[in-house]
Specification:
111 residues; six-stranded mixed beta sheet; 6 strands
Length: 111
């Protein structure tokens, strides 16, 4: 069994380094990012990669700090504080990571 929390934490480290390639390398080929119980924001590794690169270009100082993490089976929930830039107000996010075969298959954001 994979250490799903470690994978989610590594994804955040790659996110903070603005390394979209390393981030999506931890995802299944058909993975997606979505709003919680809502629409898909980015579909597939290529869609996630492209979306992240666009966001990183718009917010070059964007960072997420993990406040806490919890695991239940093949799910990880992270409580994060996101800061878009030095003059932007931080905002809280809950992220739900779903796993299949050791890789992340879906991330849902609650804001």
């Amino acid at each position: 069994m994979s250490d799903f929390l470690a994978v989610a934490e590594a994804m955040i480290a790659h996110y903070n380094a603005q390394d979209a390639d390393a981030y999506v390398a931890l995802m299944t080929a058909d993975a997606c990012e979505a709003s919680y119980r809502g629409s898909v924001l980015r579909q597939g590794r290529e869609g996630v990669r492209a979306g992240l690169k666009t966001m990183f270009a718009e917010f070059p100082h964007n960072r997420a700090e993990i406040l806490s993490g919890h695991v239940l089976g093949e799910f990880v929930v992270l409580h994060e504080m996101v800061q878009r830039g030095p003059d932007a107000a931080p905002f809280p996010v809950m992220s739900v990571y779903s796993f299949e075969g050791g890789l992340c298959s879906r991330v849902e954001f609650i804001r």
